[in-house]
Amino acid sequence: MEGTGSATFLHAQSVHAERLHAWLKNHGWLNAFVEPMRSSAGEVGFPLTANIDPARVVALVRQELRISVESRNAPASHRPSVDPHLRLKHAVSTWLTAHNIELDVETIVPTKWEKLGGLVLLPVDWGGDGILDTIEAHRHGEDMWRAMAEALKADSLGVQAPIANDLYRSSQVRMLLGSPQVHFSDHGLIYSFDASKVMFSSGNITERRRIGALDMSGETVVDAYAGVGYYTFPMLVHSGASRVHACEINPASLAGLRAGAEANGLLDRLVVHEGDNKRSLTALRGQADRCHLGLLPSSESVWEACLLALKPTGGTLHVHMNVEEERIDAWVEATLLRFQSLVDVHGLAFNVEPVHLERVKWFAPRVRHVVLDLKFRP
To answer: N or C: which end of the chain has fewer CB within 10 A?
Structure first.
């Protein structure tokens, strides 16, 4: 987008620059891809978008702002906008115009996306009404994906999909451009995995940081659903856990877990348990100071096994669950009763105490992703 050409500038005295800039931006008439002009005579010139009549703008400014302005054509210095949404809109509209395709720009440009290193993932509901298929079928469709990726400063582009209802809760990303293999840093930790096979939710960053801020110095921790190290790495690096037993069944997640552990220098404090975590947790009975149960929509299938994995001196469980907002208090109470029942069944001398409830994010309308921290004390 960088280069030279010509544009129409709206000139005024510099003393009026702030008001004029805000007014033009509010009306959508400020060209974000052209540098403003400044003169030694104390004037500033703001570039106008190509779709507006300069004479109309001049008249409106004089009427509404009572500012003396005039429009002039002049050579322009083009620049990429600092706003990724504007860059993306510009890239899409340029491609549509170049190929005489009559599609509404606003319906094509997403308002949000997820960026994992050099990969941008568009929302799961993006490209409906045949838009995605229309662009993919076009002989220059790849140019569109390349332009969108460049606008978002990415190398690869894909579209999110609902998580597969399989044993692995696999990602079903539809790749449009480049490779799904990602390698990036997040809060000082390195993650490396195939995003077309593994789910990684950036939306849970607050919970990752909360877990990483807890003091686990000297603790042995069990991560019942380790994935690619989503919570495993923060517990080892930021919380100071001495060892984490990471249970994982998905081969693609296991590859990412090991790659990330090596990149972060954690192999000596990480024990990976492949396969069904029910078997892994049975082998870890009585060894943990803390267990993390990070599966959604529910981790209930391993509640008992994680309780039994705690040391005889007790410990902490972090229980993830999707719960309807109005049922959260009732769910907390029912969960306490359930764990107290398990304690009694196994003759464990523990008191069960809720120490924290974290509302992580909305998972669906009226449904919250929550985490309940439970303390088991002798």
So the answer is: C
CA torsion, points 263, 264, 270, 273, in degrees to nearest 10?
A: -40
Distance CA 266, CA 174 (A): 32
pLDDT of the residue at 313: 94
**Does the predicted model carry a pTM greater than 0.85?**
no
Q: Tell me what pLDDT residue 370 has.
A: 97
The pLDDT value recorded for residue 2 is: 43
Q: Which neighbouring-strand residues pair with 157?
A: 120, 177
Cα–Cα distance, 171 to 252 (Å, whole number): 10
Closest Cα partner for 222 from 289, 283, 278?
289
H helices within the chain, ranges in order?
17-27, 54-64, 84-98, 105-108, 131-137, 141-151, 205-213, 232-237, 251-263, 277-283, 303-309, 328-345
Rounded CA separation 327/285 (Å)? 32
CATH topology of domain 84-179: GMP Synthetase; Chain A, domain 3 (3.30.300)
- Report the chain (378 residues): mean pLDDT per 10 consecutive residues: 73 94 92 86 91 93 94 86 86 90 86 93 84 90 95 94 67 90 93 91 88 97 97 97 97 96 97 96 97 94 97 97 96 97 95 96 92 96
- Helix 84-98 / helix 141-151 crossing angle, nearest 10 deg: 160
Report the greatest alpha carbon distance in the chain: 87
Q: What is the pLDDT of residue 108?
A: 87
CB-CB contact of 209 with 186 (8 Å):
no
- The pLDDT assigned to 165 comes to 66
The candidate with the shortest Cα–Cα distance to 45, out of 88, 74, 81, is 74
- Please report where in the chains the tokens 């500033």 appear, as a residue: 44
- CB count within 10 Å of CB 326 equals 8
Q: Choose the CATH number for 201-377 among 3.30.930.10, 3.50.50.60, 3.40.50.720, 3.40.50.150.
A: 3.40.50.150
Q: Looking at this protein, which amino acid is placed at residue 240?
A: G
